[in-house]
Amino acid sequence: MLKLSSIFKKNKNKIGNGDVGELEKGEPGKGELLFKINFEAKKPELPEVKDETKLDLRYGLIMPYAYAHLYWDEVHGEVVYSIEEPNLDVKEKEVLNTLEQGVQELIDISFINVDDKEVLIEYLEKNIKVLLKELGIGISRSSYLKFMYYIYRDFIGLNKIEPVINDQLIEDIECNGVKTPVYIVHRKFGSIRTNIVYDNFDELVSFVEKLAQKCGKYISYANPIMDGRLPDSGARVNATYTEDISSKGPTFSIRLFTKEAWSPVRLMQVGSVSAEILAYLWILIEHGANILIVGGTGSGKTTLLNCIASFIKPEARVITIEDTREIRLVHENWLPSVARMGTGVGGENTGEITMFDLLKASFRQRPDYVIVGEIRGAEAFVLFQGMASGHSGISTMHADDVKTVIRRLETTPINLSPSLVETLDVICLASFAKVKGHDTRKVRAVQEIISIKENGDAEVNVPFQWDASRNVFMFKRESIVFKKIVAKKGISLEELKKEFELRRKLLNSLYKKNLFEFEEVQKVINEYYKNKEAVMKRFLL
Ligand SMILES: Nc1ncnc2c1ncn2[C@@H]1O[C@H](COP(=O)(O)OP(=O)(O)OP(=O)(O)O)[C@@H](O)[C@H]1O
Ligand SMILES: [Mg+2]
């Protein structure tokens, strides 16, 4: 790389567009900060789109510099997502290059140990002004602001995808290698192509390294797969490093989260569950039932898990165990723990703490509920053992149907005996579903495990099932788990059914009153536990 000193010599008094702007008159260094970003941008309200071929929608992402532009691409016959950023002419590109090299050589942002973007911007801006002065570059105010945007984007942010990360209407960002467009999953328009492309192999390699570093992880030829989480947004990151793993070079995918967790009522609002299903799960959770949520990738398992965890009694001791932190609870007695990768230094995986280790430790900490983000291997065995010895557990598992789940639980590497599988009370099946041509997510069925037969098959009772032809949730039969609760807790079935009815009405009432916000709904649930009469009065139950 060219050293800054040589650029300095070569370009002294030469770069810039000759435009004698305010900055050239000696403003750099004066102290006043010019570059500002509005971080309080609200989630855009999308208009109802009847005809996608007429789509032409623009909303701000990093205001006032970067915008999302969604429009119908006539050539390909599809909706595309284009990021619009300040235009730079040839001369400006040259200056920006010089400045970015200068920043790279002289300022190490990663040394500054603050998360506050405004503080970082201030630091960057002060240094850029000095750099401009040192290099003798004269630029107009408008060029200066454009440069600051790109420098901010590339040094504080996540380079090309920084605007996209700020789009609250996006679920996923997916890059499958070099020279191929980055795709996003838009909450409204589904999977669409963007105008972002990594043309250069080295650029993508160093970007993936940067992603890993931001997540506090390490990626290399020896450790070419990384799972992590971005510190400020909590977004979940998966990345691969080398060409031998994925043919088009390094890849990454980023799962973005809404700023607020989804409340049960929000899930009702989007039509993913019914008030009956939620009331039923609420009763199960109050009485410590063991629940497994299964479904395909991105089917909404973690969202449902997080949402029903809000039904856990407010004073309960909850331990959560995850690979990457996704679960968000408001319980005061919540002990979150996250597995840690080993360093690979000084022998095999030094310092590694697996979900298996965490789970084993958790059962000694007298939890009321143990929540495991996702079970895949040996940790599943520990969870089921814990459940068999009287602890309550909720988890998710990747599988498309109940039969597959049972088979996976019974075979290597999990190898549960039928009697251990039977400790599971209920399986909720999350899935994608098309409703009137639109992609939605549904809790397709709730299945109770009655017993596991000798051949390993499960005998199930299905209290709830989503009927695709009518888009309704059918409430099919009596609940076996209710009967188990009756036997164990000495509560009458009538009492449980009355509770079910009350909670169903309460959830419907919250829905009708437009009470969707996570914290608001959580408050009502907590109050219901503490002072049921008051809640019944308030909601006229
Ligand atoms: N019921 C829903 N309706 C609409 N969007 C949803 C719903 N549930 C989840 N989402 C969104 O879908 C995305 C994936 O959700 P989530 O992480 O819960 O899925 P998952 O099944 O746990 O995925 P993975 O298999 O990757 O762990 C998120 O952006 C989330 O906000
Ligand atoms: Mg998940």
In a few lines, what is going on in this structure?
The protein has 541 residues and is of the alpha/beta class.
Blueprint (SSEs and pairs):
Layout: H1 4-11, E1 56-62, E2 66-73, E3 78-84, H2 90-106, H3 117-135, H4 141-156, H5 162-165, E4 170-175, E5 181-186, E6 190-197, H6 201-214, E7 225-229, E8 236-240, E9 251-255, H7 264-269, H8 275-286, E10 291-295, H9 301-309, E11 318-322, E12 334-338, H10 355-362, E13 369-372, H11 378-388, E14 392-398, H12 402-410, H13 418-421, E15 426-435, E16 438-452, E17 458-467, E18 472-475, H14 480-489, H15 493-512, H16 518-530, H17 532-538
Parallel strand pairs: 3-6, 10-14, 10-15, 11-12, 11-13, 13-14
Antiparallel strand pairs: 1-2, 2-3, 4-5, 4-9, 5-6, 7-8, 8-9, 15-16, 16-17, 17-18
Helix pairs in contact: 2-4, 3-4, 8-15, 10-11, 16-17
The structure holds adenosine-5'-triphosphate (ATP) and magnesium ion.
The site of magnesium ion has 4 residues, from helix 9.
How would you characterize this protein structure?
This protein has 541 residues and is of the alpha/beta class. The protein folds into 3 domains: 4-157, no CATH class; 173-255, Beta-Lactamase (2-Layer Sandwich), CATH 3.30.450; 264-538, Rossmann fold (3-Layer(aba) Sandwich), CATH 3.40.50.300. The chain is 35% helix and 23% strand. The protein is built from 17 helices and 18 strands. The protein has helices at residues 4-11, 90-106, 117-135, 141-156, 162-165, 201-214, 264-269, 275-286, 301-309, 355-362, 378-388, 402-410, 418-421, 480-489, 493-512, 518-530, 532-538, and strands at residues 56-62, 66-73, 78-84, 170-175, 181-186, 190-197, 225-229, 236-240, 251-255, 291-295, 318-322, 334-338, 369-372, 392-398, 426-435, 438-452, 458-467, 472-475. The strands form 2 sheets. A 9-stranded mixed β-sheet has the order 1-2-3-6-5-4-9-8-7. Helix 2 packs across helix 4 (141-156) and helix 16 (518-530) crosses helix 17 (532-538). The longest helix is centred in the last third of the chain and has 20 residues, at 493-512. The chain is globular. The termini are far apart. Mean pLDDT is 88; it is low at 1-22 and 24-30. The chain binds adenosine-5'-triphosphate (ATP) and magnesium ion. Residues 171, 255, 258, 267, 270, 272, 295, 297-303, 398, 441 line the site of adenosine-5'-triphosphate.
